[in-house]
Sequence to fold (334 residues):
Amino acid sequence: MAKILPVFLPFASCGNKCIFCDQQAISGVKAENNLISLAENQIKTWLSYGLSYDELAYYGGNFAAVKRQERESLYRLAYDNGFKKIRFSTRPDTINSETLSEIKDYNISLVELGIQSLDNNVLEANGRPYTNVQAEKAVDDILNITDCGVQLMAGMYKQSLYSCIDDAALLAKKNIKTARIYPTQVLKNTALYGLYLSGEYKGTDLADMILAAGGMYAHFTAEQVQVIRMGLPEDAAESGQIAAGAHHKSFGDIVKTFIMLLYMDMGGKVRYSGFKKTGRKIFSKNYEIYPDIKEDDFKDICIEIRRNYLEDSKRFIKGQAASFASRLKDAANN
Ligand code: SF4
Fold:
């Protein structure tokens, strides 16, 4: 896997206030007006550790809305530091003819879109300034030029569990390269925290998030979309800014164990080293006699899971899968 040096530019040219967002809290990087020096300092720090990288990524804020001159300086900064490849993340509504031609001219290797949801009511309720049509068009336009990655959330304000699974199903079919799945957290310095305190928003439950992320993961993996992150990084949890929401330091591992439980429920036999005890308790006969599951095997397993469980995502969130998610939640909390 390519080694990527991450440069965070919190709230850069964002001009928005999505109700769940506090990028300073989750990245640990303080927002600054001078993006060039902010990037320079981070690159210098990372390179001082003596590691080598294949690529530089600009994350955070809304990169494609940064002033053109500044964007070009940021590209030059990466090239001057020896990087041959650059990727960035941005909001779907900033993909237009100018940014598309720049993606081509600067040979941007991948653009990650913070889509979060494809439900227009959810987008509006959470302060996202674009529609599902714009988001899908942005994906298609990027794919005509370079690789595309997506970020989706689960458990947003006014979002149903099945709608995030359906969003992943739709995007997985688009030949995108990477996906990140984030269960919603209530961060203290956000409007969502106010909704939480008033009781209007309840916060996410770990079992629900295992279920939703499991369905999303299965759709992506079945289509060979690489799921590069599930859950916020541990740094975010340590910031002390998470007031509520499903967070577990091994969230990704729990979701993969959930996938294994579904597979064993279909008669699959595994020796997967995730939350072993739970798997063994439920399916002792199918456990440990067989070779370890490798990362590559997940694709075929997820194709089977999609066929057996995910034809109807509303049914998926109520059936046997929900009981596995709930047992994993208990195991994770003990
Ligand atoms: S999620 Fe992105 S667009 Fe929304 S407030 Fe945060 S930085 Fe701005």
Q: What stands out?
A: The longest strand covers residues 147-154. Residues 11, 14, 16-18, 21, 23, 61-62, 91, 114 surround iron/sulfur cluster (CB under 6 Å). The beta strands are 4-8, 55-59, 86-90, 110-116, 147-154, 178-183, 185-187, 226-230, 242-245.
